[in-house]
Amino acid sequence: MPKNAIDGQCALCGKTFSKGSMGRHLTACLNAKPPRSAAKTVPAFHLVVQDRYASDYWLHLLAPITATLDELDDLLRGIWLECCGHLSAFEIDRQHFSKVCFDEFDDDQDMNVRLSDVLKPGMKFRHDYDFGSTTTLVLQVKEMCEAAFRKNEKIVLLARNIAPEIPCAVCGKPAAHVCTECAYDGAGWLCRKCLTKHDCGDEMALPVVNSPRVGVCGYTGPL
Known about the structure:
Elements: E1 8-10, E2 16-17, H1 19-32, E3 39-51, E4 58-64, H2 69-81, E5 88-92, E6 95-98, E7 108-110, H3 115-118, E8 124-129, E9 135-150, E10 156-161, E11 177-179, E12 189-190, H4 192-195, E13 205-207
């Protein structure tokens, strides 16, 4: 897996910045960009998202404060997580919000709650997807700002990391596949050619994609 934080691309201007400077750039870029035609300016949260363990995978999102946790969950699933319809949950200020609430979990609340009711600037919170092979994301509310959204537009992707280049464990070329049986000992990252000679065969292989869920369960990429 990648070990060093890498650059990302701003979706507003198309320019590339380091992970550390992207937040500052986006604040300036949002203020510099004129409102889009047929768009309404509303209060919004600027959210920063990264994987808890593989921090090279990160996103910046812009969400109207009236958006719900359910809508945020749907976006995270669509970009990074969804593979087999697993359950998911947020933990915010010691409160739990689940995609599906069960009677035995009396403390869990439904995700159909507005962001403005549970978030504030500077707050950090957590999202878990799949309670078997769990992918855990750490989110932070960087700031509240005024932003333009078109009708029916919900949460907007502002920036994301450029896909890390993971070397093939055999020849060192960029890996295109990961063997789910061998991924965790480092031997499962393989280029197309080396996959054909791999002992486990290609039936255990998943594509290498730009997501912290790469190589996990049946994940093959964004919806």
